[in-house]
TrEMBL record:
<keyword id="KW-0663">Pyridoxal phosphate</keyword>
<feature type="active site" description="Charge relay system">
    <location>
        <position position="172"/>
    </location>
</feature>
<dbReference type="GO" id="GO:0004359">
    <property type="term" value="F:glutaminase activity"/>
</dbReference>
<dbReference type="InterPro" id="IPR029062">
    <property type="entry name" value="Class_I_gatase-like"/>
</dbReference>
<feature type="binding site">
    <location>
        <begin position="47"/>
        <end position="49"/>
    </location>
    <ligand>
        <name>L-glutamine</name>
    </ligand>
</feature>
<feature type="binding site">
    <location>
        <begin position="134"/>
        <end position="135"/>
    </location>
    <ligand>
        <name>L-glutamine</name>
    </ligand>
</feature>
<comment type="subunit">
    <text>In the presence of PdxS, forms a dodecamer of heterodimers. Only shows activity in the heterodimer.</text>
</comment>
<feature type="active site" description="Nucleophile">
    <location>
        <position position="79"/>
    </location>
</feature>
<dbReference type="InterPro" id="IPR002161">
    <property type="entry name" value="PdxT/SNO"/>
</dbReference>
<dbReference type="Pfam" id="PF01174">
    <property type="entry name" value="SNO"/>
</dbReference>
<keyword id="KW-0378">Hydrolase</keyword>
<protein>
    <recommendedName>
        <fullName>Pyridoxal 5'-phosphate synthase subunit PdxT</fullName>
        <ecNumber>4.3.3.6</ecNumber>
        <ecNumber>3.5.1.2</ecNumber>
    </recommendedName>
</protein>
<keyword id="KW-0456">Lyase</keyword>
<dbReference type="InterPro" id="IPR021196">
    <property type="entry name" value="PdxT/SNO_CS"/>
</dbReference>
<keyword id="KW-0315">Glutamine amidotransferase</keyword>
<comment type="similarity">
    <text>Belongs to the glutaminase PdxT/SNO family.</text>
</comment>
<dbReference type="GO" id="GO:0036381">
    <property type="term" value="F:pyridoxal 5'-phosphate synthase (glutamine hydrolysing) activity"/>
</dbReference>
Length: 204
């Protein structure tokens, strides 16, 4: 069974755990560096990015999370988690983890509309996704090789870049598991790697 961590320092942790388990994977709470061992992927939840960064430093997780990225395993940031992943944050001199090749801007949707829901067309999904935005950031630009997966009102709100997936909204706050399922599909399947050479499938 795939083991998927959820950074459990602050924010919408329990909802991500429920989504992961609804998709048939094992959810693992991550608070300390040793919790990262044996994970196949990790989700960084929404919440408040500056608070989360303080806690990342307090729990000694900055280096270990960067090392996790170095290992090539999939990482998914939602809302504040997206801000943590970004290589660039508009108006700030330094990023947090600085590992996903995107630039983001915080609190992009204006005070009047701090929280709202909107049906979102997502690349590769037939039906729109009812996306919940809470003081959401947006993605200003996606580096070479990255892919824009969703836009709202001309702003990029979902993207993928190598093993990183990020969105401005909170997919875990709905019962629609398609985005979590998509993220889980980014984990290389064990059978694909361990098939013996003699297998008929090895030609594929
Ligand atoms: N505005 C928050 C931040 O900058 C993110 C909001 C959220 O995660 N819902 O961290």
């Amino acid at each position: 069974m795939k083991r998927v961590g959820v950074l459990a320092l602050q924010g919408a942790v329990r909802e991500h755990v429920q989504s992961i388990e609804a998709c048939g994977a094992k959810a693992v709470l991550v608070k300390w560096p040793s919790d990262l061992e044996d994970l196949d992927a990790i989700i960084l939840p929404g919440g408040e990015s500056t608070t989360m960064r303080r806690l990342i430093d307090r729990y000694g997780l900055l280096g270990p999370l960067r090392a996790f990225a170095e290992s090539g395993k999939p990482m998914f940031g939602t809302c504040a988690g997206l801000i943590l992943l970004a290589k660039e944050i508009a108006g700030y001199p330094e990023p947090h983890l600085g590992i996903m090749d995107i630039a983001v801007e915080r609190n992009s949707f204006g005070r009047q509309a701090e929280s709202f829901e909107a049906p979102l067309s997502i690349k590769g999904m037939e039906e729109p996704f009812e996306a919940v935005f809470i003081r959401a950031p947006h993605i200003v630009s996606v580096g070479p090789g990255g892919e824009v997966l969703g836009e709202l009102g001309g702003k990029i709100v979902m993207a993928r870049s190598s093993q990183f997936l990020g969105c401005s909204f909170h997919p875990e706050l709905t019962d629609d598991q398609r985005i979590t399922a998509y993220f889980l599909s980014m984990i290389p399947s064990e059978t694909g790697i361990s098939l013996p050479k003699s297998s008929v499938y090895s030609k594929v």
